[in-house]
User: What shape does this take?
Amino acid sequence: MADMTSATRSELLKAKAQKKLAIKGHSLLKRKRDALIRVFFAKIKEYKILKKRTLENLQIGYDTVRIAQGVSGVNRVKSLAYSMTPSFAINSSEQNLMGVKVPKFELKDLGARLNSSMIGTSYYVEMARLRFVRTIPDLVRLAEVEQVIFTLAEEIKKTKRRVNALEYIKIPEIEGIEKHIKDRLAEVEREAFFRLKNVKKKIEAQERAAKA
Assistant: This one.
């Protein structure tokens, strides 16, 4: 609360400027919070769709692997899997989303090679491989979206705290200071008015006495 001695018009102008700035900041933060929430729920929706599709494709892939193992044998399928060079590389970076730095995963196709002959091997092995290869981009995207969701959730919480601090603490505090200064200035004006009124009465009384 402002001290009684600081209840001046310059302090009142200062309090009004602070209040205007705080209200503007509060409005900007609210818009940012609302925008982040919209993006957050859009990412949640995307995550659910990706997860459902990825799990379905993985299930088909595992079912195909089991068929391949039944036809060609478990050891044969394992040996082929171990002879395969990595198919993809993942590059991690950051991107700016609504002023928030979120992860970005980029998938690079390395052109996988099979260092073993497929002669005498069931075509279910190749079907299983292709199924998993086609699922990898969704897995990577799923991991990216999940990290984006976590990052946005933290930013939304931080922004909400700042909005609440301005709305329930800072702005009311400034308004309290502004009211105090206004009340004090009004009181000073009333005191000055009564002093002038009393001086006027004394002068009028002296004038009447002089005429008498």
